[in-house]
Amino acid sequence: MGLAKNGGFLLLLMAFVGLATAANVYQVGESAGWTVIGNVDYGKWAASKIFKVNDTLLFKYDPQHHNVLQVSRSDFHSCNATAPIATYSTGNDSFFIRAPGHYFFFCGFLGHCQAGQKVDIRVPKITGPAGVPTGSPIQPPQASPDGSIEPSPSSSESILCCNKTWLLLVFLMSEYLL
Predict the structure, then answer these.
(1) Number of domains in the chain
(2) 32 with 38: CB under 8 angstroms?
(3) Helix (H) or strand (E) holding 57
């Protein structure tokens, strides 16, 4: 009986850890990729996803006709490509989501952002039951005027999230083993 109980607990623990660490790779625009052709609605595409920390965004495109600029919120809304946070131009670029917040991207080629080749990726802080976000998103690190990156205030939030996860795990272990 003890072995069966411990085996069941091990299975529960493995499932819990698997759910807590699962990450996804999202190809931006799905099969259409990153383009202005075909009227891809990137806002609708992003709204249909639940992005989380450790997910990866994959931008696939023809580098002769497109690129990817990560920009600030204000530059995103005005399609201002003069001061990107980061520039990607290989045609097969990955962006790893390291922290909760909003991430803004658009194509820096003339007229493409205005034509809708832009996407706002929202990553909630923590998700509660049924994927309901708790709290408001945190902004990603922003470049300061001297070009250095200011640290994100999310590190304490991440620690809090992990502490809650481990607390839940310890509670489940104690309930199951006793």
Answers:
(1) 1
(2) yes
(3) strand 56-60
Q: 122: closest CA among 108, 135, 138, 134? A: 138
Distance, in Å, from the CA atom of 125 to the CA atom of 57, rounded to the nearest integer, reads 18
Q: What is the pLDDT of residues 22-43, one digit of tens each?
A: 899 999 999 999 999 988 999 9
Cα separations in angstroms, 145 against 51, 74, 148, 149: 29, 15, 8, 9
Q: Please answer whether residues 117 and 36 qualify as being in contact, where contact means their C-beta atoms are separated by less than 8 angstroms.
A: yes
Q: Do the domain assignments include residue 6?
A: no
Q: How many other C-beta atoms are found inside a 10 Å radius of the C-beta of residue 176?
A: 13
For residue 133, being part of any structural domain is answered with yes
Dihedral (CA of 151, 49, 131, 16) sign = negative
pLDDT of residue 39: 86
Q: What is the mean pLDDT of the chain?
A: 77
What is the pLDDT, as a whole number, of residue 6?
54
* Closest to 96 measured CA to CA, from 121, 78, 74: 121
What's the chain's Rg over C-alpha atoms? Answer: 20
Domain range spanning residue 117?
A: 24-150
Kindly report the CATH number assigned to the domain that includes residue 121.
2.60.40.420
Q: Which residue has the tokens 């005005």?
A: 78
